[in-house]
Amino acid sequence: MNDARSGEAALAASKYHEAIEHFTKALATNATAVKYYINRSTAYQRAARYTEALSDAEIAVVLATKRGARELIKDAQFRRALALFFLGQFADTEHVLKIVKKLDEKEKMLPIWEMKVAGKLRDLPEDDEKRKVTIKDVPDVELPSAPATSKPAPTEEKEAEKKDAAPKLVVPTPANKIKHDWYQNNDTVTITILAKGAPKDATTVEFEKDTLSVAFPIQNSADYNFALDPLYAPIDPAESKYRVLSTKVEVTLKKATPGVKWHNLEGDRVVEADKDESKTSIPSHILTGKTNESAPVYPTSSKSGAKNWDKLVVQDLDDKDDIEGDETSFFFKKLYKDATPEQQRAMMKSYQESGGTVLSTDWDNVGSKTVVPEPPDGMEAKKY
């Protein structure tokens, strides 16, 4: 009832689309209410939806005729006549207006529409199809059924729609088809393991300073393991993170030293320069480097010019009676150990970026630029 009243208010306020919505809701609860069809037909006609207006008017005519309600029959036939007029069926309009006149000669709107339709027919050629009556007094239309009192059983079509709407299971990627990719920026390295269906609650990721381990179950009760030991460079485990999605496992490693460019995910084994883990580690090929018997003179950022490392090693070791291992290795260890953290960073960066041809302790000089390889005279730097 509230929808019907709201529809009448909207119709009176010329809000035709709103009126249509309200009367449609009202008819959903009372599918045989003649007045609702008449009112919705009026709203359709004023909204220029003439086919729908005719359909509602014809249903109203049939329902009103069955009831024998003369006033409702007249109103329904009048709405039918107007819909036919706007659809260009002028002979049919004239026929229905005659029915309305028989029911109520005093219908105040009748003379106006009789004049309009007469003018349209007068302008038509004698053989025009619109001069022919094609309708019956009471139309043959299928009446809507009353709303069911109980919920109907779902149709096969609706059941199929439910199945389509149900979430589809993701088939896990076989172990031999799981691949990975990676990229980096100044602060992080992101590794993407392309594996569908990795379970969130059963995926384990372990971060260590120099290692990474990822494991999750796959088909046939097997486990997939992805390990990097050692990593190319140290990371910050506390700031590293991961997430498990339906199509991949994404791991983000936080670089311990921002700005260090990774050339691979894995690197050489490293030897700690000091037992204190807070200090940076140097790759083994730096601290235990296998050098030629006579080391070349390397360029340096020192203001005093290039250094002959062999001479410096000898001078530094003159007073030492017991030296274990290679003298050059001992010198590098001592040089790195006694350096400040800033000098250690400069040594790491200059050595790695120059391919081992430059070793600088001046961070102000090398920290903000890429160290270019400077091979000794007669030698040529190669890119790998």
TrEMBL record:
Region of interest (Disordered), residue spans: 131-165, 274-304, 348-384
Similarity remark: Belongs to the SGT1 family.
Bias kind Low complexity: ranges: 144-153
InterPro entries found in the cross-reference section: CS_dom, HSP20-like_chaperone, SGS_dom, Sgt1-like, TPR-like_helical_dom_sf
Domain SGS: residue ranges: 297-384
A Pfam match: SGS
Annotated Basic and acidic residues bias: 154-165
Domain CS: 175-266
Domain of life: Eukaryota
GO terms for MF: protein-folding chaperone binding
Biased composition (Polar residues): 289-304, 351-363
Stretch forming the signal peptide: none
PANTHER family tied to this protein: PROTEIN SGT1 HOMOLOG
Protein name: SGS-domain-containing protein
